[in-house]
Q: What sequence folds into this?
């Protein structure tokens, strides 16, 4: 394992700064300043690692705004046929499972181990598949880590406290300190993608938002996001 972390994708950069795909330069600068102010190490609630991530996210999105739109060259049908992809739910990536595939007219079931990362290879008969994660609204896989957005009572965001979180690995209790509540982010070590091969066990990062109702909970919010994946 090297000291260099995973590449920050556009999706991850937007999640860190809380902006959408259509953000313009002015809105991006405003979002960066707010995020950097919250995470600055000189503040009592600051976090040096998060501050570095915020700076990196800003650079990534600045580069994306400055870069002209380009189109990939045309790909022939034969070239596409040489590449086989296997799209799996994030819930399957976390806990393992199986996928039913059709090869040469035969319906076959492929058993999948827990902890599959995007880009991992799995084989069925003579076909080698490259794993891809199906997108899930509000959920981001960044390297070994999972990033989720959940709603908590405004009181918890103001004062901190304990909440019951329904994570991809099952129910977990999360203690939200006043520092974490202030920056709107809590980290659950080891609750991301499970360790596999040369990969460490990832962490689970919960991005916190205030719910409209005091009765709404982080558990219900996260459960709704994973219900479709688990039911598949």
A:
């Amino acid at each position: 394992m090297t000291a260099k972390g995973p590449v920050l994708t556009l999706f991850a950069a937007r999640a860190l700064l809380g902006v959408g795909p259509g953000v313009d330069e002015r809105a991006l600068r405003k979002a960066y300043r707010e995020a950097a102010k919250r995470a600055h190490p000189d503040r009592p609630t600051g976090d040096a690692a998060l501050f570095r991530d915020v700076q990196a996210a800003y650079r990534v999105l600045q580069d994306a705004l400055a870069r002209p739109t380009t189109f990939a060259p045309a790909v022939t049908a034969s070239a596409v046929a040489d590449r086989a992809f296997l799209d799996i739910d994030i819930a399957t990536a976390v806990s393992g499972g199986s996928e039913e595939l059709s090869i040469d007219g035969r319906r076959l079931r492929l058993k999948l181990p827990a902890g599959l990362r995007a880009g991992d290879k799995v084989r069925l008969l003579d076909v080698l598949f490259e794993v891809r994660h199906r997108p899930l609204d509000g959920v981001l896989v960044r390297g070994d880590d999972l990033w989720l957005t959940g709603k908590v009572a405004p009181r918890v965001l103001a004062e901190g406290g304990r909440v019951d979180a329904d994570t991809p690995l099952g129910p977990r209790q999360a203690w939200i300190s006043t520092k974490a509540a202030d920056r709107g982010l809590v980290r659950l070590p080891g609750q991301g993608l499970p360790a596999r091969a040369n990969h460490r066990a990832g962490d689970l990062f919960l991005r916190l938002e205030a719910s409209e109702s005091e009765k709404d909970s982080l558990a219900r919010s996260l459960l709704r996001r994973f219900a479709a994946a688990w039911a598949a």
About this structure: The domain at 7-68 is CATH 1.10.287.110 (Helix Hairpins). Residues 202 and 219 are 20 Å apart (CA to CA). DSSP finds eight helices and eleven strands in the chain.
